[in-house]
Each structure stands twice: as structure tokens, then as C-alpha cells.
Amino acid sequence: MGAEPEDSPVSSSAAADEGDHDELRRALDSAVRRVCPAWLVSARDDLVQVAMMKVIRLRDRRGEGPGEGKASYLWKVAYSTLVDEIRRRRRRPEEALDEAPWRTDPASGDPGPERRAMAAELGEAIRDCLARMVTPRQLAVTLHLQGYTVPEAAALLGWSAKRADNLVYRGLKNLRDCLAGKGLKP
Amino acid sequence: MTGQPDGRDLVTAWENLAESARPTDDCPPPERIWHAVRGDLSPAETRTVIGHTAVCASCAEAWRLARSMEPPAEAAPAAPGRGRQRWAAAAAALLLAAGLSWQLLDRGPGPIERGEPPEIESLVPEGASLPRRAFLLEWSPGPEGARYDLLVTTPALEVGVRWRRLEEPRYRVPAAKLRGLGDGAELLWRVEMVLPDGRHVASPAFRVRVG
């Protein structure tokens, strides 16, 4: 793997005063609020605080630097803080992330335990099928499942559009054949 | 499972794997995923990250989160990223303009129109007192096909209700669920909307009282 793109600390001169700290907090709060999953909402203020500390620490350590611009940098810090927290919680088996204390209400729209189990089975099967796929098709299908169009996937993967199109097509066929082999077919 | 799963089933099932995913020591740092999503890495580096997300639901979720975070000043709808691969996106757009057919409509979720995601607003007045028998939480609807995750907590952030993938932008909390709360008790509620293209939009926290 090559070198990471350089982090770009917020301007130390700008961040030095209280007003800028408020601005910093608002920007980070906005970024975290935008994508914080519902199950992490209780930790949102803590996440903003941690992100602020990261920014200030990096600023102090590195001083001013060139880079992607303030907004982009702050959002990246907010993102990495959020992902770190998600990973931290998911590494701890004692924290049941999806357990609500109340039972499923059929009128609520919740799919219920049976359908959830079926979806879980399908999800595991997809992952298994992806793992068996040859790499180019695996990459193409992964981006397809992530909602990327062919031109977007081609640009990201460094392929021609025609190649990406072909690999998505063949990869999806592989996926469906693999799922059918696992009984996920009429 | 009976019946051939359609494209949306595949996407939903794959995304839901994240709920039980456990990160590993092989997971790339979040910053690397962030830069991969934005096209800041080389294609070879990007492919390595994507290859990991294919088999790691935790990092696949991190990828989706990164993609849903477009800093306001730099939002660029329909572009996969920026930086060194912009030329490739432009080239792809030119190919499209030249009439290249993608024929993807029958392959699952299909091409996605990406634009500014909708805001979620509460349709319940802030701080309103709702009767236990009609404790209806309602919010502004998203586009057709959107699903909603709802979280209701006490001010101490004890989770009371968590519902996933609601199809309607409303949910009536059963009176029985409110039994342990006194009259006037305050609750916080929040909605996360999952758009048909997989993006997530989170609402701010709203306040409501038990009448």
C-alpha cells in the first residue's frame, strides 16, 4: 500500500481563539449528526468532543498544513471518529447493539424474527459467494451492491467503462448462480 | 429462504450484515477508506480497499458512511470522488453521451440518481405532550422506497424503542411500552432514513412528552 494522503490540520491561527472552537464544534457536530447511526445517537456529543480533541491535537503537533480544505478535513476527522467508535463497540460482544427491550410489534413494519433470519442467511450467502468470486468480478459486484453506477465504478477502479460493465454483468450472474447453488432460488 | 431474491433484497441483506459484523486487525484505517471513496488513492490501492469491503461487512458499512458524507462546500453529485480520478469520471460521462448502453436496469438496484438527500423534519411539535393511547411519532417522508429506522430514548439515553426498516414515516408507540414512564416524562426520538440508493440520512433528535 502506498503512502496515506497527508492529513490537513485546521489552521492553528484560526483555531486558536474561542470563537473558532465554537465554529469547530459546530462543524464537527454537523458532520457527525449527518451520519451518526440511530443506535449511536446517545454517544454523539462524546464523538464530537473526541473529534475536536483529535483536530486540536493534530493542529498542535503538525502546525498548519496544505491540503483538502477545512471542511473536508473536519468531515474526515468526524468520520474516522465515528468509525473508530463503531468498531470499538462491535468488538465488544457484551454490547448487544440491536437488542431493544421490547418485542417486535407486527404493526410496526418491522420484518419480524423469521424474515430477519432469512435476510441474515441471504447476507451470509452473498458474502460467501463474493469471497469465492474472482477478484475483478468481486470488486465490480461489491461496488454495484454499494449503489455505484457502472461509470462511477469504472472511474473508481481505474477500468474502462466497457470492462466495468462486463464485469458487473458477469459478476452478478456468478452471484445469482452461487446463491441458487445454496438453495436461494425457487 | 424461498423465492429468488431481487436486487433490493440482495442489497438490504448485504447491508444488514454490518449489524453483526466484527472488525478485524486487517481492517484498513478509517482514513484510508475515506480517501478510497473519494478517489484520492491510486486505482490499485482503491481496489485493495474495495476487495476488503467485499468480505468485511464492517468496512463495507464504513464505506457507505464515508460515501454519504459529502462536506457541504465540496458536494459533487454523481461523482464518485475527486482528485486524480476525476478525469476518468469525465471520460465515462463522455462515453455515456456517445450512446453507450449500460443495460443494467434488470441487474438489481440499477443506476442511481444521486442528489442532495432530503432533510427529515418532525411532524410532531417539539416538546408536545402525546396521549399514551395515541403516541404517534411522525416525520416528513423521504422518496418512494425509503425506509426508516427509529430510535426512542429517555433523556438519560436509555433505549426504549428501536425499530428498523419502517416503510411508513410514522410509528405509533404502543401504550404498553410507555407503562414505566410517568405523566410528563420526556423522551427523545430520532429517525435514520435509508434511501433507495443506500444512502443514510439522519434526523436531529426531537423531544416529546408522555401525556
Residue fraction in strands of chain A: under 5%
Rounded to an integer, what's the Rg of chain A over CA atoms?
22 Å
The greatest interface here is: A-B, 91 and 110 residues
Based on secondary structure, the structural category of chain A is mainly alpha
Order of helices and strands of chain A: HHHHHHHH
Q: Which structural class best describes the helix and strand composition of chain B?
A: alpha+beta
Average pLDDT value of chain B?
Answer: 74
Number of helices of chain A: 8
Q: Give the helix level of chain A as a range of percent.
A: 55-70%
- The parts of chain B where pLDDT drops under 50 for at least 5 residues are 74-114
Strand count of chain B: 8
- Shape, per Cα inertia axes of chain A: elongated
Structure description:
- The complex is a heterodimer of chains A (186) and B (211).
- In chain A, 66% of the residues lie in helices and 0% in strands.
- Chain A is an all-alpha fold and 186 residues long.
- In chain B, a hairpin with a 5-residue loop joins strand 6 (186-194) and strand 7.
- Residues 74-114 of chain B have low confidence and may be disordered.
- At the A-B interface, helix 2, helix 4, helix 5, helix 6 and helix 7 of A face helix 1, helix 2, helix 3, helix 4 and helix 5 of B.
Q: Helix and strand layout, with pairings?
A:
The complex is a heterodimer of chains A (186) and B (211).
Chain A: H1 12-15, H2 18-35, H3 44-62, H4 70-90, H5 112-132, H6 135-145, H7 150-157, H8 161-181
Helix pairs in contact in A: 2-3, 2-4, 3-4, 5-8, 6-8, 7-8
Chain B: H1 7-16, H2 30-37, H3 43-55, H4 57-68, H5 86-97, E1 128-130, E2 135-138, E3 147-153, E4 159-166, E5 170-173, E6 186-194, E7 200-202, E8 206-210
Parallel strand pairs in B: 1-8
Antiparallel strand pairs in B: 2-5, 3-4, 3-6, 6-7, 6-8
Helix pairs in contact in B: 2-3, 2-4, 3-4
